[in-house]
Q: What sequence folds into this?
């Protein structure tokens, strides 16, 4: 392949930013990897040691925060926002929780497309973050058919 | 070895205390991964946060896994066909931000290999049962999400200009 063609391919490769806090949300995110084949994939989570689970991809660490600590939430939001501006993804995809929602909000503010996948743990209703995300994100998936409607998509789950 | 895990978000000392109280009935080493715990255990080997590789090794080595009803733990166990005992956190006891673990446990409890408990007696009964019946059937999760979900996400991303 000549250099010109290679550069052209890199340019048309979709740049995906995949975000989740560590724990169950992160494990769910990693199970989506085949969807990003032939894309330029970057992960973002809340602990450095999780890079060992995705050694072949670019990786960013952010602080965790939840709605019990509002000041920390604001700080984390600005950190995520600045990182996303620098990464310039074509799409942000997240399985939650609060850091994922903040990535969706940051994406919305700078015109990046966003996908929220509500955790499989939410079997009776969407999570609070999921309810907010469903008003902001371009696409929202639930992993339970009962919770789907004309806006919230059900196409299966992360356990396969 | 029995491995107890309560996730990465909030403490769950009610479960750690129950296991600690039951520990003397078992000859197994019991390793408990805790988070912000205030409980002083007498009989457990307590560890804080573990990195993903150590966590995976602990799951593989364990004869029995006891956990909060978190999907991370449930997926980690069923991906390697290990039975798991789960006790749901209760928001009413300040153990989580909402009551979703009760619902998660109810749904996941229908899967072979997931045993839901709510207190000391049923925890002990299930521990005894699983340590004696090592060949109980356990459902195995695949390693990846549903093909239909993967395809839907991929097609959407590829449709973007």
A:
């Amino acid at each position: 392949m000549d250099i010109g063609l290679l550069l052209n391919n890199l340019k048309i490769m979709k740049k995906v930013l995949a975000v989740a806090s560590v724990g169950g949300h992160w494990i769910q995110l990693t199970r989506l990897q085949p969807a990003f084949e032939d894309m330029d994939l970057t992960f973002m989570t809340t602990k450095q040691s999780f890079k060992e689970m995705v050694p072949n991809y670019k990786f960013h660490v952010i602080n965790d925060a939840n709605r019990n600590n509002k000041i920390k939430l604001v700080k984390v939001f600005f950190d995520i926002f600045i990182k996303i501006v620098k990464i310039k993804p074509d799409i942000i995809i997240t399985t939650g929780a609060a850091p994922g929602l903040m990535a969706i909000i940051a994406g919305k503010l700078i015109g990046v497309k966003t996908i929220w996948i509500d955790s499989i743990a939410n079997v009776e209703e969407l999570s609070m973050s999921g309810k907010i995300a469903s008003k902001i994100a371009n696409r929202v998936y639930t992993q339970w058919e009962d919770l789907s409607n004309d806006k919230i998509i059900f196409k299966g789950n992360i356990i396969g | 070895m029995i491995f107890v895990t309560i996730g990465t978000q909030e403490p769950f000392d009610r479960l750690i205390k129950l296991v600690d109280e039951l520990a003397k009935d078992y000859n197994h080493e019991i390793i408990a991964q805790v988070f912000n715990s205030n409980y002083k255990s007498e009989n457990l080997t307590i560890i804080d946060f573990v990195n993903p590789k150590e966590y995976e090794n602990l799951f593989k080595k364990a004869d029995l896994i006891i956990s909060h009803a978190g999907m991370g733990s449930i997926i980690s166990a069923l991906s390697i066909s290990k039975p798991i005992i789960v006790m749901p956190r209760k928001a009413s006891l300040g153990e989580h931000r909402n009551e979703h673990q009760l619902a998660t446990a109810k749904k996941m409890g229908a899967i072979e290999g997931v045993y839901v408990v709510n207190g000391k007696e049923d925890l002990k009964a299930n521990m005894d049962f699983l340590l004696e019946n090592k060949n109980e059937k356990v459902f195995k999760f695949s390693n990846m999400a549903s093909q239909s979900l993967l395809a839907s996400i991929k097609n959407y991303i590829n449709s973007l200009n």
